């Protein structure tokens, strides 16, 4: 690992040599000079992670140097030290963007602590910039944000399925982004120039669902003064996304099945068959096969929808994506006057250990709350909801099922999907592996 680079600007020779000795001894790469003007020349040559500058310097003073660094080297962190410590000086330095302000004579433990914290902040700032670049690339590609192994595989599957015209069933817990997966399939498909229409099957009665999906003719019911297209007709040539398909009433399941089989439908109150060319993507957070066995979901519709199944993983299975998601949501939801643009390490530690029962949607709400309440530029722990801020930072132990699922996924990836090889590595037969793949939605 490359040592962190620190530029020391101190006009007193003994103080400069002492700082250099202490910081070099702590493993940092130190460049020490005597004036702000020399400091500017050094910064023109290379980027430093941290600048430690005296406040009182010959020529350009420490505050002017601080302003120059913030304007031209925004990722470089600055610590101001001085033998003329006053509240006014401290406030001014912090207002100009200093990370911290240390009075002379320097206490070595305090210096080491502030340097460590400043470099942590620098590392976070660099990571935020990297993640923003990834997010920008993702916006040109897919609406799915994440770089974990699980998400890379999901995006690969989305790209592959987008080129096919088959129906797709997306399974996953609430808040995992199933609609974004559906949008990604549509965006990369040959239907991308047509409409993407979404309907939540759990928010309508059977009667309202009938009108929403199929539209109605004039005078089909009281108050129908004119005919109106439904979602299916409006989406002709495009994609229709049925969210929470498991909650679709049985009589509507029959009608949807007919559309998938015959590729036409009748408006409410109509007698003329209307042809329709749509791709259907459905999503559920329940076990449709179990609903079929209970008689709550039609088996024939289940097989029509379940041509290919995708699994949207819960956030606890791709925690490494939490920092990039936070950066994405800060960019997405920041309004004029909202100033937060980075996250404190303690806040990140808490969020990395939180179980997120509400998945990515819950994380998005947490970031929106912080933006609304925060006054500074950093997402600090006090901006977290109380129930999250009070949780222990120790991550909960994974269940045996979670561990098995994660290990099987890694073995499949390492064997490039070769199930015979994967079964041999796992010490089980192919039939047992196939069952586990189906159980954990690892197809």
TrEMBL record:
CDD domains, sorted: AAA
SUPFAM superfamilies in the cross-refs: CheY-like (SSF52172), Homeodomain-like (SSF46689), P-loop containing nucleoside triphosphate hydrolases (SSF52540)
Alphabetized Pfam families for the sequence: AAA_lid_14 (PF25601), HTH_8 (PF02954), Response_reg (PF00072), Sigma54_activat (PF00158)
Keyword Glycoprotein: no
Residues bearing PTM 4-aspartylphosphate: 54
Lineage: Bacteria, Pseudomonadati, Thermodesulfobacteriota, Desulfovibrionia, Desulfovibrionales
InterPro entries noted in UniProt: AAA+_ATPase (IPR003593), AAA_lid_NorR (IPR058031), CheY-like_superfamily (IPR011006), Homeodomain-like_sf (IPR009057), HTH_Fis (IPR002197), P-loop_NTPase (IPR027417), Sig_transdc_resp-reg_receiver (IPR001789), Sigma_54_int (IPR002078)
Name the UniProt record assigns to this protein: Sigma-54 dependent transcriptional regulator
Keyword check for Calcium: no
Residue ranges occupied by any Sigma-54 factor interaction domain in the UniProt entry: 144-372
Swiss-Prot/TrEMBL keywords: ATP-binding, DNA-binding, Nucleotide-binding, Phosphoprotein, Transcription, Transcription regulation
Organism: Pseudodesulfovibrio methanolicus
Domain Response regulatory: residue ranges: 5-119
Source taxon at top rank: Bacteria
